[in-house]
Design goal:
heterodimer, A: 337 residues, mainly alpha, MetI-like fold, two-stranded antiparallel sheet, 10 helices, 67% helix, globular, B: 369 residues, alpha/beta, D-Maltodextrin-Binding Protein, domain 2, 2 domains, three-stranded mixed β-sheet, 14 strands, 40% helix
Chain lengths: 337, 369
């Protein structure tokens, strides 16, 4: 007789001629236990993650506050970093600048590139090419970040040098492109470019998904009205995919802000006597790279607290970025439903 | 399907065994130089030690050669840093500590001094036993210049960013007969906090006659570009014409960087094991009796002594809490200090202890109980 291995259930069973009652429960229907277990597991997973993030935030605040109270300079505007000793002086201005500028450079390169790649894959490439191309782009996300760091340092860096020299020579009068003598492969600009490669797969993957969902009716409508392929993309595909591109970009930005190892290997730290420069061709340290670099020497609670306070700023920054992405996605939902 | 599975497993196994074989051969080649049969006191059991990462390669070499002679002995060394090692030692977590500096006899922030804490834990004074000397090289990369001499004053000006080109008259003055290019000097420093930075700035402060203004510290206070750890600074110099840095000797050797000779006033001295040994021998003993805490004389003008170095101590209880453990530690340290092992360290970028210091070290180890 049938047990429910094949998925057959009591309702499939015919009455037995020998008088056995036909409808015996075999637990293949929506049994109460399975329902409860699964519901419970899902709920507790959700609660666990929320609790975890809240506790991380709480931990950061608790560890950071005593150090912040001892701080002798403005934490948000100072560029000094002397977190230990009797008179600690530390501020995050330089870290914030390096973190934000590298991420901005990464976004400026990766978003247009990622969108173009996604358009190529969904609109231009023949079917035999689009699948492998997508898979190869996704593969970029699987490369460990330390590999990007070493690749940038040992291989790609030398090719960036002429670019930097060119910008230094012809656009050096703009403070942003001023030459301050940092080696080409250790500048904020180059670190930003490497970050761009690292976030490219995220932006491409999400853009690709939304571009592929553009209703055929929109596209053919545009073409029927006499639009060229580019005009069709501009009027039908891009407006439809815009929110997806934005949320993909935000996820990429989140990764760029928090990237640690590649940045730590690439960027030259500034010496404590260096004059402040707005140039993107100088070195610096991001929140994540500074914390990682000095984690081995956290010898007093005061010092640890200072670094944790910096980590807290990164936490908040990333949180804000993700919140913006959420809002964009929510708005998108409101329009489609 | 099944065959590919098996194939994958097989290839995994092959790769695994290759990796293991790789590790194995590495270890044996590392200790091969010291494999000559010496009378080694063996013990059975485990010793745990923790501390300075500067002596990591040296103590691993000693552990490997000791393990070869005594199969029943197991010694673990955890290179977490000098401060962490001392903390663990005084808390009774490890059997001895490795440290870049001797136990401090002045209190840092109120409280007990490190030495007092260690004595309280041991129930007897703790001894600093110098074991590994690690020279710090001033490594440079300058096309066409194979031999470079620096005085402490010139070095201080270079690392403080006051001299910015290699053909500066101050450098030319101490390098007669060398054609120096006009390449810009690019200083690389350790962006992480490190004992190497501390010892190098200690040297500059002491020897450069006021040219180095900042207080010696683990964090760099001079000019230049910061790179991550020793590997980062040596890579920076290697890939930059005109680059210069301070780095452990082994890194300068491995990356084939130029190593500057240092002229402390008694003539230019090339960095060799013997030259470092001379500087260690010239150090003053500040500990009493068998406590061999040394005070290095950075300003030494002795001919042929290379003055920029750090000494790593093993910190042990003079009277062990546990008799068998004390015996084990004694046996291992004796092996570590033996001439054969010390000599083998030169191949991996350390300098052997000079004979007169080694004699004292062995005497101190003998006096452990």
């Amino acid at each position: 007789m049938s047990t429910s291995i094949t998925g057959r259930s009591v309702i499939d069973e015919l009455p037995d001629p020998e008088g056995r009652p036909p409808l015996t429960g075999d637990r293949a229907s929506t049994g109460r236990w399975g329902d409860r277990l699964f519901g419970g597991a899902a709920t507790s997973s959700g609660v666990l993650v929320i609790a975890l993030v809240s506790l991380v935030g709480l931990f950061l605040v608790i560890q950071a506050v005593p150090s912040l109270l001892n701080n002798n300079v403005n934490f948000l505007t100072s560029t000094e970093w002397v977190p230990s000793g009797a008179q600690p002086r530390f501020g995050i201005a330089a870290l914030l600048w390096a973190t934000v500028i590298t991420s901005v450079i990464a976004m400026a390169v990766a978003v247009p590139l990622g969108v173009a790649v996604a358009l190529f894959i969904t609109q231009y490439a023949p079917p035999w090419l689009s699948k492998p191309a997508a898979a190869i782009i996704d593969l970029l996300a699987a490369v460990p970040s330390i590999v990007y760091g070493f690749w940038g340092l040992n291989v790609a860096g030398q090719y960036f040098e002429p670019v930097q020299n060119f910008l230094n020579t012809y656009l050096g009068w703009i403070p942003l492109f001023k030459d301050v003598g940092t080696s080409a492969k250790s500048t904020l600009a180059f670190a930003g470019l490497i970050l761009a490669i690292m976030i490219l797969p995220i932006i491409t993957a999400i853009s690709r998904e939304v571009f592929a969902q553009v209703p055929t009716a929109h596209k053919e409508g545009a073409l029927a009205l006499g639009a060229t392929k580019w005009e069709m993309i501009r009027t039908a595909v891009l407006p439809f995919g815009k929110p997806g591109v934005i949320s993909g970009a935000m996820l990429g930005l989140g990764r760029a802000l928090g990237e640690t190892l590649a940045i730590m290997i690439l960027l030259s730290a500034l010496n404590p006597n260096a004059a402040w420069s707005w140039s993107i061709f100088t070195g610096g340290e991001t929140f994540a790279s500074k914390i990682a670099l000095n984690a081995g020497e956290f010898d007093s609670p005061q010092k640890t607290g200072a670094y944790i306070a910096a980590g807290l700023v990164l936490f908040i920054l990333t949180f804000v970025v993700n919140a913006i992405a959420r809002i964009v996605i929510e708005r998108r939902k409101a329009f489609t439903e | 399907m099944k065959t590919t599975r098996i194939g994958q497993l097989a290839s995994l196994a092959v790769i695994g065994s290759l990796v293991l074989a790789g590790c194995g051969s590495d270890n044996t080649s590392g200790s091969g130089s010291s494999s000559s049969p010496v009378a080694v006191d063996c013990f059975t059991g485990t010793i745990n030690a923790e501390g300075s990462s500067a002596q990591k390669n040296a103590i691993e070499e000693a552990i490997a050669s000791y393990g070869k002679a005594c199969s029943g002995a197991k010694i673990n060394y955890n290179p977490t840093g000098s401060g962490a090692g001392i903390k663990q030692f005084t808390a009774g977590q490890v059997d001895f500590a490795g440290s870049d500096s001797a136990l401090k006899t002045t209190a840092a922030d109120g409280g007990q001094t490190e030495a007092a804490k260690a004595e309280a834990y041991c129930g007897a004074p703790a001894w600093n036993i110098p074991m590994v000397t690690g020279p710090i090289a001033v490594a440079y990369n300058l096309k066409g210049v194979d031999k470079l001499v620096l005085t402490p004053a010139v070095a201080a000006d270079i690392f403080a960013g006051k001299i910015t080109a290699w053909n500066d008259p101050a450098i030319a003055a101490v390098n007669p007969g060398v054609t120096l290019p006009s390449t810009a000097i690019k200083v690389f420093f350790r962006s992480d906090e490190s004992g190497t930075t501390e010892n190098f700035t200690k040297y500059l402060k002491a020897a450069a006659g006021g040219k180095w203004a900042a207080e010696p510290a683990k964090k760099w206070t001079g000019a230049g570009e910061g790179k991550e750890k020793s590997a980062g600074v040596s890579e920076g110099v290697k890939s930059t014409d005109g680059g210069v840095t301070y780095v452990e000797w082994s890194y300068a050797k491995d990356n084939k960087l130029g190593v500057a000779q240092i002229d402390n006033g008694g003539g230019a001295v090339e960095l060799t094991g013997a030259a470092v040994g001379k500087a260690v021998a010239a150090a003053k003993q500040v500990g009493t009796g068998n406590d061999l805490a040394l005070k290095l004389d950075y300003t030494t003008k002795e001919a042929g002594a290379y003055p920029i170095l750090l000494v790593t101590y093993e910190i042990v209880c003079s009277k062990g809490k546990d008799a068998t453990k004390a015996k084990s530690i004694k046996a291992f340290l004796k092996h570590f200090a033996s001439a054969d092992v010390q000599k083998s360290l030169e191949g991996i970028g350390y300098a052997p202890l000079p004979t007169e210091v080694e004699t004292k070290v062995l005497a101190a180890i003998d006096a452990l109980s």
